[in-house]
## 1
Amino acid sequence: MAQSNNGFFDNFGGKYVAEVLRRPLDELEVAFKEAMADPEFVKELETIQRDYIGRETPLLYAETASKILGGAQIYIKLEGLANTGAHKINNAIGQCLLAKRMGKKRIIAETGAGQHGVATAAACAKLGLDCTVYMGEVDVRRQQPNVAAMEMYGAKVHAVTSGSRTLKDAVNEAMRDWAANPDTTHYVLGSALGPSPFPDMVREFQSVIGKEVKRQVAERGLDVEALIACCGGGSNSIGFFAPFVDEANPRLIAVEAGGIGPGVGENASRMTGNASREGIMQGYKSRFLLDEDGQALPTRSISAGLDYCGIGPQLAALGAKGRVEFSSALDKEALDAVKFFAKNEGVLFAMESAHAGAEAIKLAPKLPKNKAIVVNMSGRGDKDIFITCPVFRPEEWKEFLISELKRLEDNKDIHNADLMKDH
Ligand SMILES: *Cc1c(COP(=O)(O)O)cnc(C)c1O
């Protein structure tokens, strides 16, 4: 079931939207199918994937890590080497190229932590499209580096002041904009969720990860026991798994945020957690973390990208039938995994991806040496220094921030003012 049946993956998915969004969604579905069947479009996509994103991304044998753990050979798909630092660009570029083909000049997107906003802003800069990113006011304040990056790429960041002023309010605002401007505007949704056709479309644009891995493991003759990916909305995992879901092997393991523990509000474990319920939110039917009234519960994770109350409908369906196994990693286990792979492999995992790394550390020792497991490093960890440094070097980091602040204040009137003159 690589493809949905009329927007449904068994009984998950669908298109539960207000009437005004039916037409843009239906038009998008038709345009997407036509584009993917057009060799010209596919060639254009492959060229930009190669020259701009930097595909294909390498598959690294983590030799030292494997030896230390003493079991299966660990391979790491270095998706974090993609331009902009993570897999999100695969989807952003794909959708923006499609929007251009549809004659749309304006792109809107939602963003929580800012990663999807940055990828979309970059894709729009590359393709010459106008870009507006909706972001909760609370998130704008706590994610300044990503806001600055989006603005450098020329995007307008629209701070959303309704509701809890976070991701779900940004999604609502983006949907409202799209409903008002369907002819000029395309809404680039950031993960493999939302109303159909987004789950199918995002999976297809991310499946480049899985297709490359399939080729790379075949070239090396690896006996792959399992693929492991972290799972927020589910775009990197479903893209990684897609070419394998209709086969019996390998095992497919999606790792959710275990946060600080199993209690309600302490994690973002939509499939394995205590408050996991079936529901309909933001246009699709899936599993969510909900209270008894069906309202979204607060979630918690050290990684911004996994900190979300819903999961893509295809993964919910694949989980229900047992094809995809779900596990979780605690914040602490993810931090340990960042350290382990940095020290032993010279590879700095994003906090999200480190959840998959943590699962590999647990699984590899239980498997024989002739088996391989492949971990998707969905992103690299440079973006996380504000999270990792306060944990690994709290005192030094604090002193650094204080001295930076002082430097800024001392220079404020002279140096920065001079630099800004021409801007
Ligand atoms: C956003 C993000 C994720 C989580 O999103 P998915 O849609 O589940 O892939 C994972 N890793 C990184 C690096 C991210 O930026």
Note: The pocket of pyridoxal-5'-phosphate is lined by residues 86, 88, 115, 191, 230-237, 305-306, 350, 352-353, 378-379 (CB under 6 Å).
## 2
Amino acid sequence: MTVQQSSNRKYHSILPIALASVLILGTTRLVFDNSKNSKDSIFQWQYWLQGSGLRRYIINASVNDDDNDDNSYEDIEDCNVFEGKWVWDNVSRPLYKEESCPFLVKQVTCQRNGRTDNMYQFWRWQPNECNLPRFNAAKLLRILRNKRLMYVGDSIQRGTFDSMVCMLQSVIPDGKKSLHKVPSKKVFYAEEYNATVEFYWAPFMVESNSDHSTNHSVIRRMVKLDRIADHSKNWEGVDFLVFESYVWWMYKPIINATNGDPNDMREYNVTTAYKMALQTWAKWLESSINSKTQKVFFMSLSPTHIRSSEWNPGSDGNCFNEQQPIHGPYRGTGTNLEIMKMVQETLQNLKVEVTYLNITQLSDYRKDAHTTIYTERKGKLLTKEQKADPKNFADCIHWCLPGVPDTWNEILYAHLLQEYYN
Ligand SMILES: *[C@@H]1O[C@H](CO)[C@@H](O)[C@H](O)[C@H]1NC(C)=O
Ligand SMILES: *[C@@H]1O[C@H](CO)[C@@H](O)[C@H](O)[C@H]1NC(C)=O
Ligand SMILES: *[C@@H]1O[C@H](CO)[C@@H](O)[C@H](O)[C@H]1NC(C)=O
Ligand SMILES: *[C@@H]1O[C@H](CO)[C@@H](O)[C@H](O)[C@H]1NC(C)=O
Ligand SMILES: *[C@@H]1O[C@H](CO)[C@@H](O)[C@H](O)[C@H]1NC(C)=O
Ligand SMILES: *[C@@H]1O[C@H](CO)[C@@H](O)[C@H](O)[C@H]1NC(C)=O
Ligand SMILES: *[C@@H]1O[C@H](CO)[C@@H](O)[C@H](O)[C@H]1NC(C)=O
């Protein structure tokens, strides 16, 4: 697992100009040679020495910004982007408008579904030690040229996929982009780039009786802890894979599962079962992933805000009507620390490199950003009566879009950028 380490570094001193320009010449050439797209070769690069190795810092591009590229960003390699704070930014946020993204599904269009406050759209995540690169859709599309990016997981992950589609689609002209559904998948395609962004439904990652892409609300959940092939055959060869799985495990502290004999269903402790599932997944990674050409990410658990007494002692509600993020230290019980620890330990011991996107804490501050009553249930928007009963009907698990998942994608973008220029 790759985890960004904290460091006190903010900016490195820059090498003496003469040495720096030699390095710039050398590396500009290198970048040019490796680049499929000559536009990318306009970067200036600066190098400096840090510790034992050569480190890179990318500064503003030179001229020729014909797609308004802002090519400056700080190398995030040594920065823990997951530690920071939410800052009010009604200038650069949101990254897209709900009404300008034709691909958004009803589940997440909170404004259209009647939410009247919209402050939740205007917060930007500011890491303590660095800045996230400004999201640039055209640049990401170039990174995704002839490639596939796939999100695997549950409906939270589907929201992250929807967010990414909205973040990308605005720069693609009509007729050159499409979204279609095939069983278990949603596929967004950017024709001019031959770039594919996909969502694959696998709420437990391993096989289960909840794998049907639409009809999965089975009452008796049953997970097949040692079986993954039905899913993983759809993941083979994908360039960028982003996995996520959490809420479906959390229904009860025990879960029915099989391991081996398909007729031998037993109740398992959820932590134990999830760990076994991750091991099955790890075996697939180890036998199938080519770390040279493929990159694997794992999204940490998305927290829930089901009990307002956790941030507002004495209250008896949930996330409904919350309009402000939590500022300051906070950790809700929607984050199961035992599961989180188990996942981190399991990922740490993998033979395949998996980048852990540790978005739990930053999302935990966002009690204001869930879909609450402005969403649908079983494919239908909440009725008037249901809306009048937020205590029973507010959804404090899923997130409005634009919203928090956009930040997760900005962080993913930062990593893809880092990878691309390495
Ligand atoms: C990069 O560009 C920004 C905005 O165009 C500017 O404010 C900043 O000073 C530039 N940084 C460098 C290192 O040239
Ligand atoms: C942005 O937020 C500031 C501070 O709350 C406010 O004064 C300003 O009117 C807002 N601007 C817009 C365009 O909403
Ligand atoms: C288009 O992208 C796919 C991967 O998504 C790749 O297999 C295929 O070769 C690409 N087509 C061309 C013409 O490059
Ligand atoms: C959904 O699946 C259940 C069994 O898993 C089945 O009984 C039911 O008919 C299915 N519903 C639809 C609409 O396909
Ligand atoms: C599940 O197993 C973990 C680790 O062995 C243990 O800490 C936890 O208490 C167990 N949970 C239940 C509900 O038995
Ligand atoms: C497991 O399945 C059995 C038989 O269907 C059921 O009685 C039991 O409640 C289930 N346990 C859980 C945790 O769902
Ligand atoms: C993820 O973030 C949490 C909270 O900020 C932290 O406690 C944990 O150590 C982090 N995990 C890793 C693997 O860095």
Note: The chain has ten helices and 19 strands.
## 3
Amino acid sequence: MGFERSNRLKELPPYLFQELDRLKVEVQSRGIDVIDLGVGDPDLPTPSHIVEALREAVKDPSTHRYPSYSGMNDFRDCVARWYEKRFGVQLNPSKEVITLIGSKEGIAHIHLAFVNPGDVVLVPSPAYPVYHSGTVLAGGKSYFMPLKAENNFLPDLDSIPPSVASQAKMMFINYPNNPTGATAEGDFFEKVVAFAKKYEIIVCHDAAYSEMSFDGYRPMSFLEIKGAKDVGIEFHSLSKTYNMTGWRIGFAVGHSEVIGGLGQVKSNIDSGAFNAIQRAAIVALEGDQSCVKEMQYIYQERRDVLVEGLKSVGLNPYVPKATFYVWCPVPEGTTSTGFAMTLLREAGIVTTPGNGFGEPGEGYIRMALTVSKERVAEAVERIRRLFRN
Ligand SMILES: *Cc1c(COP(=O)(O)O)cnc(C)c1O
């Protein structure tokens, strides 16, 4: 017996990476050693002091029961202290902080709290796909804000028609940015706050990469801007900072009513994040941060090898100040998918075609710095050989 999927599932964009996945398996089955620069998942383990903290926490039976919906008080207090220390932003831990089962969970659910069928959500493109899929699942309509090179991959708010802006309920932004590696400063965030106030829009800033930066650069929080907390929230994740993607732990902070709405949705869907994981996450945020510095250094080295290598064959990658992605225009006369296919077929290198993140990403590929420096160097060597032929 067959069952038809709901219209909302049918409306989700097709899985553009399918063909590339198939090709990867095919290339591997020919015995070719594939270098995977496709996925944004850290290759290194969670630092051992965090693993030890989980080991201890899980031995305590009090962590085995249902957690609280909005998160452990100790964890939310810790997040508030971290925000004060890292960004100079003050938060009320009981109303302005919520624990998430990974930030993706919160990003996917926030729409259900505020978007009615037909409402407009302003979504960047290219982007992390969940901003748009959350809109579709809530019955909303995404208005895509193209991120263009000439605007340093920031959305041009002035180009959004007022008729669209006045129907918009929510806006997503993400800096440091996946997939472009672009960063944003206070002047941009100030424009976002003014725009959101004018049109009464909830701003959701995804700051998953705020701690993954290079050359001493320190990304700022959207909430550092005056008035930001009146219009929005910020999503955070421990996944990338502490190599904890599998642990599923993140948080959102900011406007108390927006956090409250997200909490109401969550209390009807999930039952909170495992308390033992929240205890280990406190150790991650408050313990020795030298592991973060070491990771930054490792990614920076890999970035330099890749960027220099790409430049040496005549490509023109953007040099990211943050994130572990290198965003690179494809050679003249080819497309994102075409170039990604060539790299895979002829050089055994997996990359992500930029249009997979949205149409304005056409003309680029994304390379993730998630293999060792030696493997990055090997990828560069293979690309050099490919360009010689
Ligand atoms: C990886 C990533 C996330 C998701 O992180 P989790 O906390 O593991 O769910 C969110 N946003 C962006 C832009 C990401 O790249």
Note: Residues 96 and 256 are 5 Å apart (CA to CA).
## 4
Amino acid sequence: MAEKKVPFNLAQVQEITRTYPTPFHIYDEEGIRTNARRLKAAFSWAPEFKEYFAVKATPNPYLLALLKEEGFGADCSSLAELYLAQAAGIGGEEIMFSSNATPANEYQAAVDMGAVINLDDISHIEYLTEHVGMPEMISFRYNPGPLMAGGNDIIGYPEEAKYGLTKEQILQAYPMAKAKGATRFGLHTMVISNELSPDGFVTTAKMMFDLIGEIYEKTGIRMELVDFGGGIGVPYRPEQEAVDLEYVGEGVRRAYEEMIFAKGLAPLKITMECGRMITGPYGYLVATALHKKEIYKNYVGLDACMANLMRPALYGSYHHITVLGKEGLPCDHVYDVTGSLCENNDKFAVDRELPEINRGDVVVIHDAGAHGHAMGFNYNGKLRSAELLLRPDHSVKLIRRAETLADHFATLDFPGAALDMSSILKK
Ligand SMILES: *Cc1c(COP(=O)(O)O)cnc(C)c1O
């Protein structure tokens, strides 16, 4: 079984908590950069390769700027995500706007920024033209429906998914967009999510290369860019293995040679929109054990809750837990590790074998770097935590401060002493 390691020790965390109390999210810069370089290297054979980091995974401009330094762009699907990308210095066609059910003002902002617009439906050609105008470069999201077997729990089966155009619509959409003035074209899909089998990605690439050939044969339209979406999984469980990126890169290269290059359809820009695998394994939720209780089961209550990481409660996902300083001890206790929400599914782990946990122990929840802080919410008046960046020299940089009650009440305009922040903040 692979050991799941933490890039800091108890003494370092105790030092950090003198300035930044738990709970907090902390991201390992070196881990993120090394992984980013590995992904790029796997596709270095391509005439052009771009990873548009899916901003929703970890929408923090410091991390986006770090990824931009590694050559990444941004995959955005809302106004806020567009602004975050812009704040990080990512602009123009380094932005892929893969949105759905999009309001006109968001298309307008994306077009103003020069982003590549990736339309989710054939009817959006008219909507975009009417409200904003057809840009020179346009992409469409393909949903293969029952033409592609498989699918998985998070994204469901393609024919059940709300996204994209059918095959028939794809073949109509490009000539329609061309008639409205588009001259450059992209093709996008996203059919798998959190997938660990490398063959699925090669299969997706082949399906897309095949479709690019068919679009050219039937409409005469040449594709400039293909986007395989995201979906590379994270080995959340110790016994799981990360996706072999070199294998995927090599498989896609061979398919490219055969299906694109040999058919005169090169050069084709290869792009992806991975989010989860870029930051997920390199982020940790660090919490403190506040309480222990023994009733019909044994519980450890943390100062973090599902407002800091909702994946276990939402999907029943496994997130590995390390009790800092007790890494070498036997896992001879069984706990439900919980948060403080008045929601019985507010549990980070159920029936987990761990070393004995005492009050005050530092509990680290692994693989929280994607869809962790990002999915935060304020139910029960819980405040979102700080985000920290662990630098390669082991110094720590605050990249988002923790929310305060004043932040939480900022949208309320209710007269009365109870919400008078000046009295609350003195406490
Ligand atoms: C969520 C999403 C991604 C990123 O998916 P990961 O599983 O994080 O790699 C990419 N593109 C679109 C359109 C998405 O919705």
Note: DSSP finds 13 helices and 17 strands in the chain.
